[in-house]
Amino acid sequence: MSLELMFNPDIQLTEIMRLRAQSLQQRGQKRQDGERLLRLSEHVYRLDFSEQALHFIRWNIRMSTPGRLNIIATSQLWTPDLTYLMTRQLLEPTGLFWKSTDDDLIQCYEADAQEFGERIAELAKVRKVMYFLFAFEDGLNPESIDCSIEFQISK
Question: Average pLDDT for residues 53-75, to the nearest whole number?
Answer without folding.
Answer: 96
